[in-house]
């Protein structure tokens, strides 16, 4: 979680910020429900410390939050610690998770605190393709970061009757990422297991010349949810 929080803070500078040759642009995603870390409820606000220093922008980070983008000097290795939030003395509580995150110059990345398919807390780094899209197109990047089995994803327009565009992603497993370009507008997304829809349809709204980051997080079915972040494509 800490790593996640750190990346979220870095990502917070969110408007059109271009990474310099020595910076990485990072988004942080908090995808671990509090119950998986011993809390009585799904929400578990956390504070994040990086290399031993508390990061104020990441204090009180909640499950389901995405923060960023933030510039991170690179190349470098960052030790990220996640602790239960303390509004009076941030980062004073015992460490819940600690991870070393290597950062490469010039990349755009998401650092996601999430659960594996077996329910173990994990920090994963995904490199985001934010290059300029084809004319009149936008890009979805889907991430399976939930405690759930492999699913079949279907992204489609209209009512799903087969006459409108439809893009299937079979066997989408925990820890995987997939991206594709689509026409702007409203799309529907469903998740299926064994031919049965277990989530959705959820509406995704895509704008031209943007990249929409889509994360499945939590534990299925109790705290499972899908969260998104739209960022500009870069020339």
Using DSSP, what is the number of strands? 16
Q: How many helices in DSSP terms?
A: 1
**Considering DSSP H and I runs of 4 or more, what fraction of the residues is helical?**
under 10%
Strand count, sense and barrel status of the largest sheet are: 4 strands, mixed
Distance between the termini: 32 Å
- The quaternary structure here is single chain
Order of helices and strands: HEEEEEEEEEEEEEEEE
Compute the CA-based radius of gyration: 18 Å
**Class inferred from helices and paired strands:** mainly beta
Order of the strands making up the biggest sheet: 4-1-7-8
Query: Overall mean pLDDT score?
Result: 86
Q: Tell the overall outline.
A: globular
Low-confidence stretches: 1-19
User: Roughly what fraction of the amino acids lie in strands?
Assistant: over 45%
Explain how this protein is built.
41% of the residues are buried. A hairpin with a 7-residue loop joins β15 and β16 (225-232). The chain has 235 residues and is mainly beta. It has one helix spanning 2-11; strands at residues 23-30, 46-50, 53-54, 66-73, 76-84, 97-103, 108-115, 121-127, 138-144, 151-156, 166-172, 177-182, 185-193, 196-206, 210-217, 225-232. The chain contains 1 helix and 16 strands. It is globular.
